[in-house]
Amino acid sequence: MIPVSDSQLRVLILGAGGHAQVVADILLRMRDAGAAITPIGYLDDNISLAGHTFLDLPILGRIDEASNIDHDAAIVAIGHNTTRKRIYAALMAQNERLVVARHPRAIVAPDVLIGPGTVICAGVVVNPGSAIGANVILNTGCTIDHHNTIGDHAHIAPGVHLGGDVHIGSGTLVGIGATVIPQRSVGAWSAIGAGSVVTKNMADGVMAAGNPARVIRAIQEAGSR
Questions:
Q1: Sheet holding 161-162, edge to edge
Q2: Is 146 labeled as catalytic in the residue annotation?
Q3: Of 50, 79, 193, 195, which residue has the fewest beta carbons closer than 10 angstroms?
Q4: If phi over 0 gives left and psi between -120 and 50 gives alpha, with beta otherwise, what is residue 75?
Q5: Of the candidates 115, 121, 125, which has an alpha carbon nearest to the alpha carbon of residue 30?
Q6: pLDDT (tens digit, 0 to 9) for every residue of the chain, 225 residues total?
Q7: With b meaning 16 or more CB within 10 Å and e meaning fewer, what string describes 70-81?
Q8: 20, 56, 208 from 190: Cα distances, Å
Q9: Under 8 Å CB-to-CB from 143, ≥6 apart: which residues?
């Protein structure tokens, strides 16, 4: 396990899958760049992971055991938006401190607003006037142009490009390599397929794909998640 000095913010990572290991790496790179932050290990409900380590960080127990482990803050590192929202809500109800994981090689304009628990991966660009909600994933190499609004619990996948003045609703997934042209919106708890090009506004709770993107179907129970 990586040693932690008294001056470091000790962070629990909730989840231990591939995305969680990316988050761990971001936190470690932040520490290497001088941030007073160090991950201390993972919590995961998959019992087959007990006793494992990833990036020299151990599995410390189940997610519901967070209160039993000495730490200063946490971050939810689970890709599935609904699950991530549920765990985030439970942590907030317990007055848990949520950190932002921001890779040193991300470029974020100084005036950008970033909510707690958000993950900003390597190669991300966020331009001026944008607001990123809580518990959001801005995944590897995506670009968020000026005056975007990204709702809580959304996931902007690797290689996505959002034009200026785009709105992405809460809980929405924009799939790998998709593009949203300027001044368009995608509603809450929707999903945009990989490689799609969004040229018109999309409603809440829909799955859309293609170039141009067209609605394929409604997403069941979208409004209740």
A1: 107-108, 125-126, 143-144, 161-162, 179-180, 197-198
A2: yes
A3: 50
A4: beta
A5: 121
A6: 444 455 789 999 999 999 999 999 999 999 999 999 999 999 999 999 988 999 999 999 999 999 999 999 999 999 999 999 999 999 999 999 999 999 999 999 999 999 999 999 999 999 999 999 999 999 999 999 999 999 999 999 999 999 999 999 999 999 999 999 999 999 999 999 999 999 999 999 999 999 999 999 999 755 444
A7: ebebbbbbbbeb
A8: 23, 36, 8
A9: 124, 125, 127, 160, 161, 162
Residue 17 has φ and ψ, to the nearest 5°, of: -80, -165
- Please give the structure tokens belonging to residue 100: 């932002």
State how far the Cα of 177 lies from the Cα of 161, in Å rounded to an integer: 7
Q: What is the DSSP letter of 202?
A: B
Q: What is the pLDDT of residue 50?
A: 87
Instruction: Judge contact between 186 and 174, C-beta under 8 A.
Output: yes
Rg over CA atoms, the chain: 17
Instruction: Determine which one of 71, 103, 146, 153 is catalytic.
Output: 146
Select from 155, 12, 34, 203 the least CA-distant residue to 96.
12
